[in-house]
Specification:
Distance between the termini: 18 Å
Strand order of the largest sheet: 2-1-3-5-4
Shape: globular
Strand content: 15-25%
CATH class: Alpha Beta
Structural class: alpha/beta
Number of helices: 6
CATH superfamily: HybD-like
CATH topology: Rossmann fold
Oligomer: single chain
Number of domains: 1
Radius of gyration: 14 Å
Helix content: 25-40%
């Protein structure tokens, strides 16, 4: 296990909800050469599944779409303590997830890395489709560069 991980969240069958996976695909192409000390994971929509990938690491960078009331395609870098979730969930299950609640649970279980960064991208369209919206596709390189910067 490497000390750093990039974890993509989302559902690539729902348009911009799959932006994390798009970013991960780009980074994996250069992972062996540029990022030998980094693990790359697609955690899908798996709720608590992301917690297992955090445990034992020094740093984790999450990439996901995030509804932030900014123009479509805009992105923000933040830490879990910088934001409050507005997601309404039935509870902690393997089928729904709230990243902030998952990180909080990992902290309470002493399984969270010392450094957690979230790259959130405002979606333009979350609907059944296999591709990103034009707005997000046009900026995919920008999102990849933001994650590269986090990895040093």
């Amino acid at each position: 296990m490497n000390p750093v991980a990039v974890i993509a969240l989302g559902n690539p069958l729902m348009g911009d909800e799959g932006v994390g996976q798009g970013i991960l695909d780009e980074l994996r192409r250069e992972a062996d050469v540029r990022f030998p000390g980094v693990d790359f994971f697609d955690a899908g929509t798996g709720g608590l599944a992301a917690m297992h990938q955090m445990s034992g690491r020094a740093k984790v960078v999450f990439v996901d779409c995030a509804v932030m009331d900014v123009p479509p395609g805009e992105w923000r870098r933040f830490r879990p303590d910088d934001v409050v979730s507005r997601k309404l969930l039935a509870g902690d299950t393997l089928h729904e997830g709230d990243l902030l609640r998952t990180i909080d649970l990992a902290r309470r279980l002493d399984a969270a890395p010392a450094e957690v960064v979230i790259i959130g991208i405002q979606p333009a369209s979350i609907e059944p489709r296999l591709s990103l919206s034009d707005e997000l596709q046009a900026r995919l390189g920008e999102y990849v560069a933001a994650v590269r910067a986090e990895l040093g």
